[in-house]
Amino acid sequence: MPVQTIPPIEKMTSDQLADLLDAIQIERFRRCTEPSPEWHLKVLKERELVRKGILDNLEEKGRREAIEGIRRGIEDVKAGRVKPAEQVFRELEEKFGISHDD
């Protein structure tokens, strides 16, 4: 069986993270000599806490990226690296052959 490369956690999708958590849970179950119902509940609770933490981290990362994008946009405006909206719309209309009646 080929070895599967695991991407860094911060680059994983939520589905990949869920699969990883499932694999960890399965491995913990496999290594447990006498898994009890309490043990299963503990593992499920841990899994949900980890998943929530990962999702919270992804949401925070998204907020940081959005703020950084806004900051770059403001810097572009201050530096004059922008075009008027009318010009952009006109260029898009010409590029894609869009016409609209006024």
Q: Runs with pLDDT <50, length 5+?
A: none
Major β-sheet profile: none
Count of extended strands = 0
Shape: elongated
Distance between the termini: 64 Å
Query: What helical percentage do the residues reach?
Result: over 70%
Strand content: under 5%
Mean pLDDT: 77
Describe the structure.
- This protein is mainly alpha-helical.
- It has one domain (12-96).
- The protein is built from three helices and no strands.
- Helix 1 packs antiparallel against helix 2.
- It is elongated.
- 0% of the residues are buried.
- The mean pLDDT is 77.
Task: Provide key terms for this protein.
72% helix; 102 residues; single chain; mainly alpha
What's the SSE blueprint?
Blueprint: H1 14-31, H2 37-79, H3 85-96
Helix pairs in contact: 1-2
Q: How would you sum up this structure in a few lines?
A:
This protein is mainly α and 102 residues long.
